[in-house]
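Most newcomers find our protein records easier to grasp once they have seen one. There is nothing in a record beyond a sequence line and a structure line. Getting from the letters to the tokens is the skill we practise here. An example says more than a description, so a record of this kind follows:
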Amino acid sequence: MEVILREDIDKLGTRGQVVKVAPGYARNFLLPKRLAVAATEANKKIVEQERQAHLRKEAKAKGEAEELGKLMGAVSVTIAQKAGEADQLFGSVTSGNIADALAGQGYAVEKKKIQLDEPIKQLGEYKVPVRLHKDVTVEVTVNVVKEE
């Protein structure tokens, strides 16, 4: 069965692409979740209009993310935590802590956009990538210091 995708789907295709799928997959998953529509001429025109609108919206979002990225390029965040003898933290610094510190400086960034592989457990200076858009990533300097 041929369908037109309305969203990007991993290992299947991108928005607006006509793909051939099993009838059950289309009937039970793609169509009810509105991820795809049947491949008719009328639907092709509608999906093409949706795709053009999505591309315009995506370009605007990318532009805004690039502007924010330029502003955040030189941002440095200091987080004070309690630490033991060997600069080992009691607890850890997570993406939520970094998001709160950025919010304190006036940058509203969701914690899920902060790409911290594992929580920081040592004192020191770290470069943490922040993914503002799928094409825009900025590194923020995080200083973890001992709380007095």
The CA atoms of residues 82 and 148 lie 8 Å apart. The chain is about 35% helix and 30% strand.
